[in-house]
């Protein structure tokens, strides 16, 4: 399906006036993907590679591109923290959590994975979040207009989420909603509370509809938990304290921060992460500059 979409984009590009052969689509089978990727990364005619995918695969591509010192942009894994402070607007925080966690059934690189809620607001947040999940989430067929949650990308993805739920419950977390693996690659939207940092869902990226909540007491504690990851793509902060917002946004080790917003991607804004979430930026003027070279010219002895 993705290859068909790319072919349609190619046709639109040519209709827009881009000369044939400038923009190309190279479809291939899953089995041939590694060999095609190797050619693109090692051929000296290719000046730059841009990859969106897992951190593990990005590292492989970077190693192959190193032989020709090729420029590379990498948009890799994320493990976004979603921090709700006591001063937050609870309704806005719940709305943001629903949008950030459950769009595309939790399968985007900027979906929130680790929800950190301060003690003073924790119970109200959990109550309203639970109500929102009941009212808004429906698992089903994508052609059913009432469906909001479709399948995960494959059965392995669903199994990974189920394993994270099982691990959390075995370590003392409380299962408030969902938690069941359904037929095929479907997974119930799941809400966990009493989550601790030693659980798999706090260590591994979750590409699915699992919302684990950690209760915290101080700003320093929340930041320590949020930054305890080898990746840093996106982070979210809900607060009405402007001084706190600036402190937290600066301290979060991520490339993108949503402040009182659960949806943060837009074409005119830069997109990219720090740590092992990747290299370079997409979007805005910075995304264009990734495909340009800087040349310095020094003029001298130019006579009239």
UniProtKB/TrEMBL annotation:
Q: What is its EC number?
A: 1.2.1.24
PROSITE patterns reported in the protein's UniProt record: ALDEHYDE_DEHYDR_CYS (PS00070)
Recorded metabolic or biological pathway in which this protein acts: Amino-acid degradation; 4-aminobutanoate degradation
Under Gene Ontology molecular function, one entry of this record is:
succinate-semialdehyde dehydrogenase (NAD+) activity
Superkingdom in the source lineage: Eukaryota
According to its UniProt entry, the protein's GO biological process terms are: gamma-aminobutyric acid catabolic process
Any coiled-coil regions, as ranges? none
Residues of the Aldehyde dehydrogenase domain: 7-296
Q: Name one GO cellular component term.
A: mitochondrion
Give UniProt keywords alphabetically. Answer: Oxidoreductase
Q: Enumerate the InterPro entries for this protein.
A: Ald_DH/histidinol_DH, Ald_DH_C, Ald_DH_CS_CYS, Ald_DH_N, Aldehyde_DH_dom, Aldehyde_DH_Superfamily
Listed Gene3D superfamilies:
Aldehyde Dehydrogenase, Chain A, domain 1, Aldehyde Dehydrogenase, Chain A, domain 2
Pfam families noted in UniProt: Aldedh
Similarity annotation: Belongs to the aldehyde dehydrogenase family.
* PANTHER family from the UniProt entry: SUCCINATE-SEMIALDEHYDE DEHYDROGENASE, MITOCHONDRIAL
Q: What is this protein called?
A: Succinate-semialdehyde dehydrogenase, mitochondrial
